[in-house]
UniProtKB/TrEMBL annotation:
PANTHER family: BLL6696 PROTEIN (PTHR43610), N-ACETYLTRANSFERASE DOMAIN-CONTAINING PROTEIN (PTHR43610:SF1). Residues 13-148 form the N-acetyltransferase domain. One of its GO terms (molecular function) is acyltransferase activity, transferring groups other than amino-acyl groups. This is N-acetyltransferase. The keyword Transferase applies. Keywords: Transferase. The keyword Transferase applies. InterPro entries: Acyl_CoA_acyltransferase, GNAT_dom.
Length: 189
């Protein structure tokens, strides 16, 4: 859905995802990086622009381009989705970054900004995160954030090749947020 939310801090800036980000994003996307997504790997700026348009069209999804706060360089993308304000819950995902930013401060900085907005601005009671259960890099990153594993939904998703995949679910509840925030701030200090 179209939105004007901008979140900034800790060296990153999250801005509404738009077609102008397509060329920068597709430049670092490949099959291995895209593994775990439910759509085919975009290979051209036009295909990435279609992926972006599809993301923006989803009700309850606020998609962001992740930028370097100083240079404006595109580092990746992330989203709020399945936002249900009436139930005080949202999910964070559809996240990918170029390899130069793996293992650094980009992911914890983005998650701190998104979680702070969800809990502090929106008053969420629950924020969920999920990943393909075979994507050990992503599931490990989610656990490093301080999210609690909730289980695996078997045969929950269809991969781009048509095979079925399991989804590992994690969550952070409002009463857990202060400790999670402290852990993320410590990682970024």
């Amino acid at each position: 859905m179209l939105h004007d939310l901008v979140l900034a801090g800790h060296g990153v800036r999250l801005v509404p995802l738009e077609e102008s980000h397509a060329a920068a994003l597709v430049a670092f996307v490949d099959d291995a990086l895209w593994r775990g997504m439910t759509s085919a790997t975009p290979r051209t700026p036009a295909e990435m622009a279609t992926t972006i348009a599809d993301a923006v069209d989803v009700p309850g999804r606020l998609s962001f381009a992740v930028l370097d706060a100083v240079t404006g360089e595109v580092r990746g993308s992330t989203s709020f989705y399945d936002w249900a304000p009436q139930y005080a819950r949202v999910e964070i995902g559809h996240t990918y970054y170029g390899r130069p930013w793996w293992g650094g401060t980009t992911n914890p900085a983005c998650k701190l900004l998104l979680l702070a907005h969800a809990f502090d601005a929106w008053g969420c009671a629950r924020v969920a995160l999920r990943a393909d259960s075979e994507n050990t890099r992503s599931t490990a990153a989610i656990q490093r954030l301080g999210a609690t594993p909730e289980g695996v939904l078997r045969s929950h998703r269809v991969r781009p090749d048509g095979s079925r995949g399991d989804t590992a679910y994690f969550s952070i509840l409002a009463d857990e947020w202060p400790a999670v925030r402290a852990g993320l701030e410590a990682r970024l200090a």
